[in-house]
Every structure is written in structure tokens, then in C-alpha cells.
Amino acid sequence: xxxxxxxxxxxxxxxxxxxxxxxxxxxxxxxxxxxxxxxxxxxxxxxxxxxxxxxxxxxxxxxxxxxxxxxxxxxxxxxxxxxxxxxxxxxxxxxxxxxxxxxxxxxxxxxxxxxxxxxxxxxxxxx
Length: 127
Known about the structure:
By secondary structure, the chain is mainly β. It is 8% helix and 39% strand. It has a five-stranded mixed sheet with strand order 3-2-1-9-4, with helices on one face. Strands 5-6-7-8 form a four-stranded mixed sheet, covered by helices on one side. Strand 5 (47-53) and strand 6 form a beta hairpin. The two termini are 25 Å apart. The mean pLDDT is 84.
């Protein structure tokens, strides 16, 4: 029980999920490139889309999507995370981990994306 908060450190390429202040999961994350950076800040989960595909990038599969911005940034599953590729600003996670976050997350839950800095709710980094 309790609120769900997701943190992403783009420098470390790690995503962590906390429930009521306790870490309940973590994984390697694929993040944006210098040309298409992952935005830094605090984002509510806007929508959940189980079988999403990218309209911008040739219908690329984006399973287990948790949309963070209306212009296309999301947390989603992907099979290339372990290969170390970069995204177009999204946070890609292994499919199994994406499915677990998708099951736990609710629209409105908070995602805090930082660049190597610690953030807590209410801090300047958390917006």
C-alpha cells in the first residue's frame, strides 16, 4: 500500500520504483541520446497503453507504455535495453520489468527524471 514513485537517473541509466518510500524494483534503462535527450523533471503518468506503437518512428513497438508527455516521451518496454542503444527521449526498460511497472502504476503517479542528482518529492529537482 501507499503511493508509487518512479525515479530515473539518465546518467546512471537506472530506473527505480518505490512504493510508500520502499524500493520495490530497479532495472537498467535505455534513455535518450544527445540529439534526442530524455527530459529532466517531474512528470505524472498521463495514460497507460498496453499495446502502443510509435507513430513517429515507423510503428516501432512500445509495449507497456506509461506516457509522461503529450509529445511522445514515455516509459515503455523494449528488447534492446541490454544492448545499450539510445532512445528518442523515452525511457526503455526490459519487457518483463515494464509489465510489472504497468501493473503497479496508476495514472497520476509521479515519475522523477534526474541527471545524476538525488531528488525527493518537494525538492527543487522534483519541480
